[in-house]
């Protein structure tokens, strides 16, 4: 078979194919616009002269959006959840026990079923005595009931506080007490956390568990609170008729607590109008998304990226199938061997991801290719290089029939990792590397849009076109936003810089939120309303505009540290370069103003480092011992120097010393956020001794 493939494909490489450069050829995607407020260089989306507020007549809130879609798409499938067949414990050779799940197919609710559940849950809230003046909170993993509970609250005009399921106990209590939450909606897993902090919560009166089985031990520990299941509240509401109390566009829909990389989380107040504006704007620029699409939901719904993405699918009448990062693929950690992951069962067409997830998929594929070796590896490398040439506009690249055959014989199996039907992917939450973007374009034959936004802007900011195969930018402003660059003299950035204007990114428009809950000082510092009534958010990120109006993120004010001799080091920029090493699972650069050099904490990639050690004949008892070996340290450091050279880092930007760590940084450890961004201050405190040792040695 392989001989046939080679004999059939290789002659095609020498055919004269038309050069079909898919890059945008400098098409104007963003144009300069005159706005009010602080002087700067401002760009709007070239396709829209005015800011988008809503894509539909009569739809100005999230409650109206759901009702509109449920009326239009009634009997179509809408929300899908996998059946849990069994939980099993698997014991590894080292004696550690791991939970494995045996999951069945998806069971679906139609739009009509979902709307009925929302109405009943809303009625049930009223029967329990929860008034519109009280706040509810959702503290749970992503699932269908999360969305149903959210929308049920909206029909009572109840503001919902969203909290990451992985948030620490201190931050959890802070968030619930600050917002004076009286009704807490959570999963059975989160009930155990609540039982530990029961005495620290001041206002909670009732708890609604999204699972039907409420553990008796946690229920008794929550003495004094009324504890019911989601099904019980829904049944309670099904026996009564309560008139809906729908919100207005200016009402606060969500107070979203970030899992912030520094200090206590801040609650961002998002109105219904803010959310509808972002959803409408993204819908206008995402191509051909509709009722035939299936979206795989697994990111935290307490993250604005996931919340917006799911409501876009709601708006177009698509289907949402729920999964989790630990059950996403057939080889995911919690999937029982021999059974199928979420993507294989669901066969999604749409997927949102943060760069860390995309990098994991990419690394897994490349590892499989490397393991197979031989002709398979050579074919993959050849196919990848040919498709890469084509994407880069080379006349010699693989187009037409040749591209079709590479996809058929080489990349088809890779696409099956995510079900085989992905056509559009959205990346957000952090910058996506050029290599990762190309990997998705080539191996999955899918368009990938890279977005830039913040919780404070309801995820709205900039968004690249899915058919734009150029790399290194996040596209033009979304139609609900203006993006302005203002001078930052301290960092050496100016809108008059050549060849591109550079400066701090300020986002204005209909998606910019009200500010931080009970934090007027921080709100005044970060938000401003200009003389024309446009609300602006000062992001602290540094960007530059390309000639076609696309934005590139190049720095961050908070990440810049001045070294002893006056050089400025951008921590995030250097980390983005160093993480390209195959030996690196995660990295944090540390710069001290009292020293002339940087150091780095490097979380080792176990598989890559162990594979290298095996080839070198190095013996060790476990990964912890391997990370302490001088040979391993030298090998990893050499790979970092190579990545630094490839990224053209200055000598003072490259860490002079590193500490190799064996334990991964996870949201549960409190060292990264739920979106897998490093929590710099938490890491600094946790590894304070290691950092001091690096500077003293």
From TrEMBL:
GO molecular function, one term: long-chain fatty acid-CoA ligase activity
PROSITE patterns: AMP_BINDING
Domain of life: Eukaryota
Protein name: AMP-dependent synthetase/ligase domain-containing protein
Gene Ontology cellular-component terms listed: endoplasmic reticulum; membrane
Start and end residues of each AMP-dependent synthetase/ligase domain: 103-517
InterPro entries, alphabetized: AMP-binding_CS, AMP-dep_synth/lig_dom, ANL_N_sf
Top-level taxonomy: Eukaryota, Viridiplantae, Streptophyta, Embryophyta, Tracheophyta
Species this chain originates from: Arachis hypogaea
